């Protein structure tokens, strides 16, 4: 092959890479995004299972969010209960101190 043929061949490879959206080593520029787009179009999850067969990522995400909210609510309730207990203990201590003062005075 002459020099001109090589240049044309290299140019056509570059043109082909651009058309296919590939970089020099044959990898897609946006490989991950294109896979995600494909999965959305086909309605599949990462493991190739149909969304109807398994819960979708969004559903799992919602469930996780709900679980986290429930945990937060439980923690808040526990904190409130602890605060109430502390207040009750403080009140009892104050009452005991008042009784002791009354005994000392009496």
UniProtKB/TrEMBL annotation:
Compositionally biased region (Basic residues): 18-27, 41-50
Region (Disordered): 1-106
Biased amino acid composition, Acidic residues: 64-106
Ranges annotated as biased composition (Basic and acidic residues): 1-17, 28-40, 51-63
Name recorded for this polypeptide: Uncharacterized protein
Species name: Petrolisthes manimaculis
Lineage of producing organism: Eukaryota, Metazoa, Ecdysozoa, Arthropoda, Crustacea
